[in-house]
Structures are given as structure tokens and as C-alpha cells.
Amino acid sequence: MSSLEHHPYNSIAIPPETRTLIVGTAPPPRFSLPRPPHEGPKPGCDADFYYGSASNMMWVYLENAEGRKIFAEPGSPEASVEDTVKLMEELLTRHNLWMRDVLQSYRRKPGHEGDSSDSGIDIVGVDTTFMDFAEVLAAGPHIDRVVFTSVNSAKLFFTKAVTAVGQHSFEHVFATANALRKARKGIDTFTEPFYQGNVGGRTITFYIAPSPSPAAPVPDVETCTKIYRRIVLGQA
After folding, report:
1. What per-residue confidence (pLDDT) applies to 229?
2. Predicted local confidence at residue 75, as pLDDT
3. Does the residue 236 lie in any domain?
4. Please, where are the H alpha helices in the chain?
5. Number of domains in the chain
6. Which pLDDT belongs to residue 215?
């Protein structure tokens, strides 16, 4: 059996002025707690934060969407001395953004201990726990937009995480919304809301962004930047 992983960043307090929450699934295994046995971020290359892998495109999209150079190139001498995590947190708070992942504790499937893909995670394991969205809403009283970074994170959210809010199952919500999403073409697949409705006693608009994973089949960087600028930063 693989080691039980605990999410390293979901315990960071959500800034109270947050309006948009970016929601993923879980970080690659090296980022997980405890450390050891997990090796942690690669010094001078990774950042010890959400989407901190040097190969992940999240911070490229957000930096480009803001329209100015913020981060040093991963692995460069400049990256080894900059406070990258602070820069990431400042970018988020400038735009009233924050981040959470759906999974809180989890194991990798046998043979997938080093696999960073969602498919390598044992979602139905007895040790698997999910973020409590009721706590998220309590900590972020102004959150009215959620942007998922994959269809899978949206599915897990609607079928697992929102059960903590004490409402009926949202499985049908996901199924219906995903069918409509699949019928859209081009950039509208991302820029049109995935779902808008009452979740946890609050009207929230949900989107699914292009995945920042380097392995994901997504549009080119310029198109992804435009999408992130529109649905994450809320700018035309």
C-alpha cells in the first residue's frame, strides 16, 4: 500500500476578500506531506505552493494575463534567490483570487506512487478525504466564482466536496452541465459558465479552465492566456 498523502497547502488561510477560487485536484506526490518520505519541491526549480511544479503552466497563464513579467525562469540563478511563493501569493491577492484542491488526504494506486496524474489517485480509498466546501465558504464570504483546472476536479467537487455542505447530491448537476459543455465549440467551451446556481446557500458561477498540466491537450499559450484573463481575472 502506498503512503498516505496529506495536502500541503489547503490549510493556508483563505484571504477574506477572495472572490474567485481556483480549484484543482491534488499536487504531484513529491509536494505532499509528510516530508519525508515525500521529497518536497526541487530547490531553485519548483515553488512550495499550489501549481508549484516548474513544468506547470498555471503561473505562466496568470503572469501573462496580468500583462507583466513577475517570475524568474525556473532553474535560473534569479529563481534561486527570489521569494517565488510570496510573488505568487501577491499576484493572487491583487486580483482577489485564492486556491484550493478538492483532495485533502489520499493514496496513490499500486504502481502509481510517483504518478502526478489524477488517474493515479485512489479516489475511493477508505483514507481518501475531500475539502470541506462549507468551511471554504465560511472563510471566504465574498467567493462567488469558482474556476476548475480540469473536468475531473469539477466532477470530484460536485460529487464529493459539496456533500459537506449538507445539501442533496450534485451528481446530476455535474452530468447536465458537462453535457452542455461538450456541445460547445472552441473557446466557448471555457469562457461560457459551466454552471451557475445555489451551492452552500450562495449563488456561485463555475467555470472550467484549460488545464495547466503540461500533459493536457489544451489550446496554445496565447489562447489559454486570454481564457484565464477572462474567467479568472474577470477582464475582457
Report:
1. 98
2. 85
3. no
4. 58-66, 77-81, 84-94, 133-139, 151-159, 171-183, 188-191, 221-231
5. 1
6. 86
Q: How far apart are CA 60 and CA 214, in angstroms?
A: 12
Q: Is residue 41 part of a domain?
A: yes
160 in Cβ contact with 23 (< 8 Å): no
**pLDDT at 94 (0 to 100):** 97
Q: Say which amino acid occupies 66.
A: E
Q: Are 162 and 153 in contact (CB under 8 A)?
A: no
CA distance 201 to 198: 6
Q: pLDDT tens for residues 159-189?
A: 888 864 555 568 889 999 999 999 999 999 9
Report the chain's mean pLDDT, rounded to a whole number: 93
Q: Given this model, what pLDDT does residue 163 score?
A: 64
From residue 222, alpha-carbon distances to 60, 181, 219, 225 in Å are 10, 22, 8, 5
| ω into 34 cis (within 30 of 0) | yes
Q: What are phi and psi of 200, to 5 degrees?
A: 70, 30
CATH number of the domain that residue 15 is part of: 3.40.470.10
